Amino acid sequence: MTEHGTATNPATSENGEASATAKEVFSDRLLGLLDDILAGQAPNAGRFCGYCYHPLAPTRETCTHCGRPLADWPAVAAVPRAVIEMHRRRRNREGLVVRTVAWGGLSVGVIAALLPLALGDVALWSVIAFFGLLVFFYLLSANLANSLGDSLGYAWGQSLVRREWARFVKQRGSEVKP
Ligand SMILES: [Zn+2]
User: Fold this and answer.
1) Interval between CA 72 and ligand 1 midpoint (Å)
2) Which partner from 24, 102, 117, 135 sits 20 to 30 angstroms from 174, CA to CA?
3) Which whole-number Å values give the CA distances from 128 to 117, 134, 163, in the listed order?
4) Model pLDDT for residues 98-121, shown as the tens digit of each residue
5) How far apart are CA 54 and CA 67, in angstroms?
6) Angle value at C-alpha 4, between 104 and 26, nearest 5 degrees
7) Over the stretch 44-70, which tens digit does the pLDDT of each residue have?
8) Ligand 1 centroid distance, CA of 53 (Å)
9) pTM, to two decimals
């Protein structure tokens, strides 16, 4: 999960990454920053869009991610705790899916690998089959976790963020009207 971190300029990425980032609630730069905040590698401070919390340069008067003018959505100096927690739950969910796929595949593998030992006599071939199957399923589940688990986790994490963000925006709108 290291595809984040590239700064995107919506003005120049209309055809390329725009479609990929359109579904993202948060900008790539905010995602990278949220990861760093969660890892304790970055302070939660700076200048952020008052609507989508995209990190902004001091001179910006319009958000480069959502396009909203800061006159309507005054810049904030920190990302709200609720947004960071939202991101944490997303990453947890992504990790859970990847681990579940990996351990699920491995469990099936151990059972499959034990079958020759259970059904046949313990002989050289069944021991070789045991280790062969174990290695095979280990590689298979690692692969599945990286491909299937990653994309499943991404989709599930996305749905969580979209739902929680919609709720957050609704609440924010009723509490503080900028
Ligand atoms: Zn914005």
Assistant:
1) 11
2) 24
3) 10, 10, 50
4) 999 999 999 999 998 888 888 877
5) 10
6) 100
7) 999 999 999 999 999 999 999 999 999
8) 6
9) 0.75
| Amino acid found at 39 | A
Measured in Å, residue 114 CA sits from the centre of ligand 1 at 55
Closest CA to 63 of 74, 49, 73: 49
How many residues in total does the chain contain? 178
CB 10 within 8 A of CB 18: yes
- Positive or negative CA dihedral for 69, 73, 76, 82? negative
Q: Are 109 and 141 within 8 A, CB to CB?
A: yes
User: How many of the other CB atoms lie within 10 Å of CB of 27?
Assistant: 23
